[in-house]
Amino acid sequence: MIVDLVLGNAKAYIDNEIVDCSLAIEEGKIFKIGKKKLMPKAETKIDLKNLLVLPGLIDAHVHLRDEGKAYKEDFYSGTAAAAAGGITTVLDMPNNNPVTMTTETLRTRMKIAERKVLVNVGFYSEFPKNTKEIQEIIREGAVAFKLYMAEQVGGLNIDDDHALVEASKIVSGLKVPVAVHAEDKTMVKRAEEELKRANHNDVEAFLKAHSESVEVKAVKRLLDIAKQTGVHVHFCHTSTENGLKVIVDAKKSGMSITCETTPHNLFLSVDELRRIGTLALTMPPVREKRHIAALWNGIKNSWIDILASDHAPHTLGEKKAKLVWDVKVGIPGLETTLPLLLTEVKCGRLSITHIVRLMSEKPAEIFKLKGKGHLKEGNNADLVVVDLDRKYKMDASQFHSKAKYSPFDGWNVEGKPVKTFVNGRLVMDEGEIVAEAGSGGIIRRG
Ligand code: DOR
Ligand code: ZN
Ligand code: ZN
């Protein structure tokens, strides 16, 4: 037998260990893992001496935009950024134009994506106004629902607890998770109005409006709904000490909930935000040191289930405005996440096990992505090859994303994704995209 590809002389992360091995790949799947002499003949052989193969990263929180927001990012540029960052699967957020919240918007989105994507893409849907449509949206292939509590984005009235409970019951029955942006809209709006009236329109005012208690309030509200309905709530970008504490207490009480945090919440504090300005503005924002310490502690204790970039690209123009309230919030993160994490492996704050668990195994488990998350025979050949010794400066001007800025621009890092394989195909090689648009895959639930 002649397989498509053999990756030889590698070190690979298999069953929680880094082992010397070779990998044979056939028809997009991992065909065999073993000693070099046991490998079948191959059409193509790539020698990976001194390089480490990890299961491709899964970024469960990405705003790929396209459609009415294609000027910020599109399926090609966004998935090129993912491939460049060693990420082989992304889950796309629904706050698009049009908002993804019907079978039709979802179908259209998948169709547009199909021709453009370079990695695997799964889709969130927002909640439709008519909860009867929830099941159809899942049947159409959405991997999960997104519930945005900071503003009204979807069709379901977020001020209406009864509606939230009804929707959650249905989703719970379908065994689909609901990813929640936990910031209480009423609290934010009230604070915002007061601050505006007092003529406070800067970054400090934004931080006041998006306080810790805003997160805690929304987390508690969702935990209440989860208790009533059994729905699996996944808390996006957990950013505060007390937000995390409430989540952890609920976990300890046996609730089936999960949470994520972001690299920007782990690596940036309000000091950087003040220095960099609105370019680093996100929602929820980066925080004071005590929150950062709490999040790192959450990683250490495995209370935080996953890391996700919350890649939220905007134009440079949109990142600046006279009033902070008019600044578009969000930063691109697909191309900085893995280098930042690998650098922490060098300094000993993280291990490769952490990275694989937080960005491959756990996201695959939470979002039920079959054949992903682990390097094992029969699984999809989604792999990232990293060079742990490569030292360099991150350069946002070289991003594949349309958003060519980053609060991490110019940071010195150690560890680089050098090759990304998606379904057995080499997509990124030394920073270059070497596959064609549309060579990635669309993930449909079920
Ligand atoms: O920073 C953010 N950016 N927070 C959000 O809630 C939305 C996101 C976006 O879509 O730009
Ligand atoms: Zn969010
Ligand atoms: Zn987001």
Q: Can you put this structure into words, describing what you see?
A:
- With 446 residues, the protein is α/β, with parallel strands linked by helices.
- The protein folds into two domains: 2-53 and 379-433, Urease, subunit C, domain 1; 57-366, Metal-dependent hydrolases (TIM Barrel, Alpha-Beta Barrel), CATH 3.20.20.
- It contains 13 helices and 17 strands.
- Strands 1, 2, 3, 4, 5, 14, 15, 16 and 17 form a nine-stranded mixed beta sheet that branches.
- β11, α8 (241-252) and β12 (258-261) form a beta-alpha-beta unit.
- α4 crosses α7 and α7 packs parallel to α8 (241-252).
- Bound molecules: (4S)-2,6-dioxohexahydropyrimidine-4-carboxylic acid and zinc ion (ZN) (2 copies).
- The site of one zinc ion has 3 residues, from loops.
- One zinc ion binds at residues 181, 236-237.
